[in-house]
Amino acid sequence: MALGRAQSDEALLRVLQSGAYSDLTIKCGSFEAKVHKVIVCTRSAYFAAACKPGGFAEGQTGTVVLKAARDDNDIGADDPEAVKLMIDFLYKHDYTATRVVVTEDEAHITAYAKESQTAGSFFPAFHGLSGSQWPSKHNDKVTPTGDCNTVMHAKMYALGSKYGIHSLQDAALGKFMKAATYAWNSEAFVVALRLVYTTTPENDKGLRNVATQTLLRHEDVLLRKGSMEKCMRSIDGLAYDLLKAKQTMKPDTNGPCCNTCGTANVKLCCNCHEQSVSCNCDPAPPVGPFRFDGVSRWWCRRCRPSFGL
């Protein structure tokens, strides 16, 4: 079964690359793809409507022209590179975004040419990490400041919404979530946040929820960035979404801990019976009259002088 699926996928890629048997052309700026209605129309509600009898004029002529964006501020138009990846997805059920470097300092983390489906190999430096092991809080030692394709994944999600390709939205959402784990402190994340709120319908909360939760998870850093402040002030509805998300987010129950042993706990003094915060650096005395019936006793610092401790 796996071999047959692989051979079928290879055949689809060959006809996409060669244009053989094509009956529809999709153009966006300088990008042009000769595609097949049986593929794109069955996976996209937009192209299905364009190509049906009596549909859009472009669909009847066999050429659909999508308006190309001049830059990331050209809302409503499409990035030709994103359109190319969208066509790839229609044929391959996946897309591979090229790594974008935002600063020269990040040249050391551009070793990979394409993303892996596994979270562990998303960055070579973090090979072996599972999704559950990724840091939920920022860590200056492991958090790069590059794009990690957050902008492109936001564009792909928007294309999925615009052209009725729900499976593309699902794929882009997962990729954006992984990318934001590491690129939350990049200028590209600020650009991606603006794209999320300007290229998707207000009732589409998928990518918006991920973006706001990421922002809140690192609010102590991000809210001090001038570019983030400017972005937040310019986006209608973002402030309300942040307040709403903050109410639903689970509180951080980790709390402070000892810098030496990494623990913190509440102990009950066996003399005054009051609770005190302690850690494993301050255990119960192991020998002497301070153990009764094999049970360790613990005295708070206020009571210890009375017992010669």
Q: What is the structure about, briefly put?
A:
With 309 residues, this protein is mainly α. Helix content is 41%, strand content 8%.
C-alpha Rg, in Å? 27 Å
Oligomer: single chain
Within the largest sheet, what's the order of strands? 2-1-3
**How large is the share of residues in beta strands?**
5-15%
Spatial gap, N to C terminus: 73 Å
Total separate domains: 3
Unreliable segments of 5+ consecutive residues: 100-145, 285-294
Structural category is mainly alpha
Q: Tally of extended strands?
A: 7
User: What is the arithmetic mean of pLDDT?
Assistant: 76
Question: Based on CA inertia axes, which overall geometry fits?
Answer: elongated
Question: SSE order in H/E notation?
Answer: HEEHHHEHHHHHHHHEEEE
The percent of residues in helical segments reads 40-55%
How many distinct helices? Answer: 12
The major β-sheet equals:
3 strands, mixed
Pfam family, one: BTB
Organism: Baudoinia panamericana (strain UAMH 10762) (Angels' share fungus)
Protein name: BTB domain-containing protein
Domain BTB: 22-99
